[in-house]
Design a protein that fits this description.
With about 260 residues, the protein is α/β, with parallel strands linked by helices. Helix content is about 40%, strand content about 20%.
Length: about 260
């Protein structure tokens, strides 16, 4: 008797969305397995971030379904998907500029706070315990990300590459099971990008995360991912292992123009 395939941790089924006269996504289907690192590639305007916005609940597709751990979440709000274990970064960093790095990670964990607002205001012991736990977890994440020495630095004025790493740390502080990274290497040097990809593999190995990565740095995505999907003009152009995608002439042409035969 054949063994059934395990349920994907995240799945989109024929997801499509239109903005006015523009078909931004057309029948995009993908699956992310438990513990996988999956790369999403495509030229500018291919629909990568639009797909992330549909998966995380900021856009509702006109057609198709989205499932997290087998549960249909197509009609759920972003906060409900986050409670199921979905964590996501954005192209534009979403941090409180007047707060320190540590304070941002504490704030990011607000959904895990059990003490009431009144208890926090009057400094009740339960609220104080919660605060200590949140700060301890925030410090654990900063240690993991190599940012502990910067914990008391205000967000305002930090280099953009550091801000992106702090945003990843803030999402990790919410204890996700599925981590969606939208261009985390924007503003990073080649050396920083390589170090971050090592960190992504560490997140998978040590934290048990399933990770979906949008990134324009093609060689790093191909180096890090177990499986890759390529979008072009809102449709799925190709999918497969990094080697499959690297040698796909259609993918090379989408990135580098007519006549290109390999991606890198």
């Amino acid at each position: 008797m054949p063994v059934p395939e395990p349920t994907p941790v995240l799945e989109t089924d024929s997801v499509s969305i239109r903005f006015g006269g523009v078909q931004a996504l057309s029948d995009v289907s993908l699956k992310i397995g438990e513990g996988q690192i999956v790369g999403i590639l495509g030229p500018n305007g291919a629909g990568k971030t639009t797909l992330f916005n549909c998966v995380s609940g900021f856009y509702k597709p006109g057609r198709g379904r989205i499932r997290i751990f087998g549960e249909d979440v197509t009609d759920m709000k972003p906060e409900s998907r986050a409670q199921l274990g979905l964590g996501r970064t954005f192209q534009q960093v979403g941090l409180v500029r007047s707060f320190t790095i540590l304070e941002n990670l504490v704030v990011a964990q607000h959904a895990n706070v059990r003490a009431s607002g009144l208890a926090a205001i009057v400094g009740a012991p339960s609220a104080m315990r919660e605060e200590r736990l949140l700060r301890r977890r925030a410090m654990d994440v900063l240690d993991f990300m190599g940012l502990a020495d910067l914990r008391d630095r205000p967000i305002g004025g930090l280099p953009y590459g550091t801000l992106k790493m702090v945003e990843v740390a803030a999402v990790l502080a919410t204890d996700p099971s599925i981590l969606m990274l939208d261009e985390p290497l924007a503003g990073a040097s080649g050396e920083e990008g390589s170090a971050f990809c090592d960190r992504v593999e560490q997140m998978r190995a040590e934290l048990g995360l399933s990770i979906i990565l949008i990134e324009h740095h093609v060689p790093l995505v191909l180096r890090t991912s177990d499986y890759v999907y390529v979008l072009n003009f809102g449709a799925l152009l190709a999918e497969g292992t990094p080697d499959d995608v690297r040698d796909n002439a259609e993918v090379a042409e989408a990135y580098m123009g007519e006549g290109a035969s390999t991606l890198v």
